[in-house]
Predict the 3D structure of the following.
Amino acid sequence: MAVPKEIRDVERPINSIVKQIGDKWAVIKRIGCERKNGKNYPINGPVVGHIVDGVFIPKVDPELEITSKSYGDYMLARSVSLDLLDELKNSQINPLYQSMTAVQGV
């Protein structure tokens, strides 16, 4: 399906193409080309944004923020669980321990 002229004329990043995905117009980055049998074939990269109501909207990747609070929670859970794991290893309930470690993937 051809891309309408009003969608193609929207200002967007250089070396990008517009492709309809569902009911949205995705802007896809061209990252290079590959030569096969004497012809160049373009290689498309990731989606860098969308065109909505005639305006290019860049895609924003969420950033993972690690704080000292979340690290403290992790260390507390780890320190408590290591003691429990050692107790479970030394206990008489071996089948239970084996099934729990199989589920955990340890």
Summary: The two ends are 51 Å apart (CA to CA).
